[in-house]
Amino acid sequence: MYALKEREMIFVFTGPHGAGRKTVAEMSGSTLGMKQVISYTTRPPKATEVDGQDYHFISPAQFVAAQADNEFIEVSTVNEHLYGIKSADIELMFQQSGSIYLILNRFGAQTLKKLYGEHVVQIFIYADRATLEERMRESGDSEELIAKYLSHYEDEMAYRDQCDHVFENVDLAHTVFDLTKTLDQNLNRNLLDLD
Ligand SMILES: Nc1ncnc2c1ncn2[C@@H]1O[C@H](COP(=O)(O)OP(=O)(O)OP(=O)(O)O)[C@@H](O)[C@H]1O
Ligand SMILES: Nc1nc2c(ncn2[C@@H]2O[C@H](COP(=O)(O)O)[C@@H](O)[C@H]2O)c(=O)[nH]1
Prior knowledge:
Layout: E1 9-14, H1 21-31, E2 35-36, E3 40-41, E4 56-57, H2 60-68, E5 72-78, E6 81-86, H3 87-96, E7 99-103, H4 106-116, E8 120-126, H5 129-138, H6 143-150, H7 153-158, E9 165-168, H8 172-186
Parallel strand pairs: 1-7, 1-8, 2-7, 3-4, 8-9
Antiparallel strand pairs: 3-6, 5-6
The structure holds adenosine-5'-triphosphate (ATP) and the ligand Nc1nc2c(ncn2[C@@H]2O[C@H](COP(=O)(O)O)[C@@H](O)[C@H]2O)c(=O)[nH]1.
Residues 17-23, 103, 135, 139, 169-170, 172 line the site of adenosine-5'-triphosphate.
């Protein structure tokens, strides 16, 4: 496991699927010069997804081999597919930036908190169930997939109390504004004059 240096910080974005975690994390992350650690998954890519950008898409055999080599710091199964974060990727991203971010379900968030303690800031992004359903439908997810994702909604929502910051993502510009300000304060930079 990569040993963090004193000032290195990990921001974990968690919350229900489709809440906008990826969207807001990328927007605030790029403003603050943070690097994302991309997960590996055995899930097939969706039409709009790019390998190496959204996920590293690998076969179940490749995933199992990497797991046997102890390459993953954390592994989770979601809707019958495997997801994981490689320790080497955390180290690599820290070579490029003093703070990194990941987008994980509650199990991944919990694991990173356990491993890295005070270095981890957990950020919960959510929207109400009907809004998420509408967003998933708009993005072209099948009814079967929408039902699968929504079956985790209540469990993911219950994790909000474990998180350091909670944002309801209704108006995107508003969420990104508040989030960027919060991250900036967590980094003790106060570089941004957002008021
Ligand atoms: N505030 C918002 N208002 C309307 N649409 C939004 C808002 N935020 C994000 N979206 C849209 O909702 C969809 C889901 O967003 P995103 O992929 O960022 O969510 P996520 O929580 O990362 O989910 P996933 O589990 O797919 O990674 C995307 O089509 C995105 O453009
Ligand atoms: N615990 C982990 N959760 C992860 C990881 N990579 C992604 N995720 C989360 O899984 C669900 C499903 O993702 P989807 O892209 O298939 O909709 C979602 O909540 C992701 O944030 C990981 O490495 N570990």
